[in-house]
Amino acid sequence: MTDPNTLSPLDLDTPDKTFLDSNELVINMGPQHPATHGVLRVILRLDGEKVLGLECVIGYLHRGVEKIAENRTYTMFNPYVDRMDYVAAVSNGLGYCEAVEKLLSVEAPPRAQYIRVILTELNRIASHQLWLGTHALDIGAITPLFYTFRDREEILKIFEKYCGARLTTHAFRIGGLQYEAYDGFEKDVKAFCDFVKPKIDEYEELLTTNRIWLERTKGVGVISGKDCIALGVTGPVLRASGVKWDIRKALPYANYKNFDFEIPTGENGDTYDRYIVRMIEMRQSLRIIEQAVAGIPEGPIMAKVPKVMKPPVGEIYHSIEAPKGELGYFIVSDGSTQPYRIRVRPPSFVNLQALDIMCRGQLVADVIAVIGTLDIVLGEVDR
Amino acid sequence: MHDLIQYIQSYLDPNVKTTPGGAGNIFWATVYVLLVFVGLSIAVIAMNWLERKILAHMQVRLGPMRVGPHGLLQPIADALKLLLKEDIIPEGADKVIFWVAPFIVVLAAFTVFVVVPFGPTHAITDMNIGILFMLGVSSLSVLGIVTAGWASNSHYPLIGALRSSAQMVSYEVAMGLAVVSAILMTSLNESSTGTLSMIGIVQAQKDQQVWFLFKFFPLGIIAFVIFAIAMVAETNRAPFDLPEAESELTAGFHTEYSGFRWSLFFLAEYSAMIAVSSIAVTLWLGGWMRPFPNLLGGPTWELAFSFIPGLTFLFLGAICFYNTARMPKHPLFRIQTIGLAGFGAVLALIGLVLFVPVVRDLVGDIFWFSAKVAGFMYLYIWYRGTFPRYRFDQLMKVGWKVLLPTGLALLILTAVVATVADPDLRRSLQEAVQRL
């Protein structure tokens, strides 16, 4: 048999064999498939159940977000970024606002920074919860999904109370915040922290030591740290492969340098390590939130930002640690009210490129597990 | 005409202590077939509702609530929907085989109930090879699944069908070994004749005063556990639901099926679950016998236990009445409230009827058998709510590397222990000792 590593991902030009003869099967998983997390289409080349190679076909959710930016003012484009990674809308907003702030050379006041960190970390927990539920569902455990959705609801309630929206929040403005934290915000967040800690233990109870879960995740979709770096893979996937790289620590933004938290890393770079890394990240996020809530300073929530934003000619790249990895915004300004070009570096899109390497030689069921563990959101992949 | 009536009445003679099949009475056999068929259909409908409700409550949600009070009419609504759906046969499908496949599965799943012993005489017939018949016929359903996957002429069904054929064939081996070790135990009666008849197996447990689950502790339990694992795999249920793994193969072998044909697969799956559970109940859990026959023996306990069927139904009725009281008082809910109260009344009425001495004696066996099977059904739902799905190679590993060696070792051990414990052997040994 041919060595799967030398095979091109999808060599459809192999000589045509009769149906009964052929050992290889090309199947088309998606765009409508229960486990491809939206509209991802994966063309799989199988030998029985073994994956010889695969190719992702994307673009089914392409809305031209980057192009839309060129016809909107900086402020008007702000809500659009929420629609990319819609399960972590707050992170998207943070990245965009900070990038534009950098371009304008303004800085959000400390109180705004603290509230931003709280909401972003809450969103990280929400994103990880959604990942855990769907990932477990893909592997066949249907119950964690409902537990995580139940608890994610509490986060969405806080968002709703804060800014009126649950999913696409548009929580931040360029220069700070539009809304002051509502009465009892701190109490709610603290209550949530106390509420969710035992819940995370509950998820772990269902999965971490479950024999079937261990068998399905250990040694599945292994990727080395070297490969991750070569492919530009970031976020929990990179950290699970043993590379300690978290932009919150490496290139601190917002006011993350004021908080004490740890960056979990894995060793084997397999699906189980990625699961463990994300579970620890949830707990670390809670730690950050607790510190931030305890130390919210008084003061303004909005910096002095011109009504009509005309950033100076130039370009800027700013990236943040979104729940899924490095989320970067590259903005080129021509000095007008509208950006000349915005390019988003979405973590899901880049991480998805690792799918082929991670799946080769594994079984069909592992492809599903690996798609789940990469934690992709198609809104962000296609933009 | 007179002859016909006499023919019908002949089976009702209290001296006829056998199944209709055993008595060769075609009329009563047909009645029993219909009864079993109706009972099974009701069981599948109830199971459908219960599974959704129980699973929902395990997953902090309510499950069906809209169609009828607490969603009680949901299975009926679903069945109607499935019957009214357009009957699609894919263009590339092999039409004849596509058409036949669900019927093979349903036939296999229903035929096994011919020998299921709901009571000492409550079976359609009692074959002397009952357990073999059950295992043989139930394994025919793999044929239907393979043909369904093949005839669909589509990738996902094909992979699902291949998975299921490999899975069902390999788990049958372990299953068979566990069954054989239980059958070995039947030969330890005073009469010392082993039997393959389903009724005979339960009688053997009665004669030996022990359920085979507890026989030769822990051998009986190990055999039971092997069977309990293999039977989940055999019926393609979570965590061994690879042939229809939703997240991988969309719906596996029945991806291309819709409407009535699909509902046949559904029906077959649930009746197969009931069938294998009945095997387990018959072989290890004393079949129709009530629990604790030795510990709580005597006529007083006998009477007390005979009230349990009626009490169970009264309890279910009470739950209905309790929930009727808790229904929203809004006029929109009036019909649902009345419906729930009516349902409760029906259950309570059944409960009262079950207290009548004649009925009590008649249904006691059936009740205990069904209750034990229901326990297994609950386990099935519980597994589904708890476990992730095995991967194909891991499934094979569990089957061939864990269950099969354990089953073989168990079989040898049981044989050794049974030989040692065999009364005949012991007698001849004693005679030999005396002669010395």
Keywords, separated by commas or semicolons:
heterodimer; A: 383 residues; alpha+beta; Cytochrome-c3 Hydrogenase, chain B; three-stranded antiparallel β-sheet; 15 helices; 8 strands; 46% helix; B: 436 residues; mainly alpha; 18 helices
Q: How does this structure look, described?
A:
The complex is a heterodimer of chains A (383) and B (436). Chain A has 15 helices and 8 strands. Chain A is of the alpha+beta class. In chain A, strands 1-2-3 form a 3-stranded antiparallel β-sheet. A 3-stranded antiparallel β-sheet of chain A has the order 6-7-8. Chain A has a two-stranded antiparallel sheet with strand order 4-5. In chain A, 46% of the residues lie in helices and 13% in strands. In chain A, helix 5 (143-163) packs antiparallel against helix 6 (185-207). Chain A has one domain: Cytochrome-c3 Hydrogenase, chain B (Orthogonal Bundle). In chain B, helix 5 (95-111) packs antiparallel against helix 7 (141-151). Helices cover 69% and strands 0% of the residues of chain B. With 436 residues, chain B is mainly α. Chain B has 2 domains: 85-307 and 356-429, no CATH class; 309-353. The longest helix of chain B is centred in the first third of the chain and has 33 residues, at 26-58. The A-B interface holds A 25, 27-28, 33-35, 49, 136-143, 145-147, 150, 206-207, 210, 212-213, 215-216, 363-366, 368 and B 55, 58-61, 155-156, 159, 163, 238-239, 241-242, 245-250, 384-394.
Sum this structure up briefly.
The complex is a heterodimer of chains A (383) and B (436). Chain A is α+β, with helices and mostly antiparallel strands and 383 residues long.
Tell me about the biggest sheet of chain B? Answer: none
Overall pLDDT of chain A = 85
Tell me the strand percentage band of chain B: under 5%
Provide the helix percentage of chain B: 55-70%
Rg of chain B to the nearest angstrom? 24 Å
State the fourth-level CATH superfamily of chain A: Cytochrome-c3 Hydrogenase, chain B
Number of domains of chain A: 1
**Structural class assignment of chain A:** alpha+beta
Number of beta strands of chain B:
0
Total beta strands of chain A: 8
Low confidence ranges of chain B:
none
Helix-strand pattern of chain B, N to C? HHHHHHHHHHHHHHHHHH
Q: Please name the CATH architecture of chain A.
A: Orthogonal Bundle
Biggest pleated-sheet summary of chain A: 3 strands, antiparallel
Fraction of helical residues of chain A: 40-55%
The CATH class of chain A is identified as: Mainly Alpha
Could you name the CATH topology of chain A? Cytochrome-c3 Hydrogenase, chain B
Oligomer: heterodimer
Shape of chain A: globular
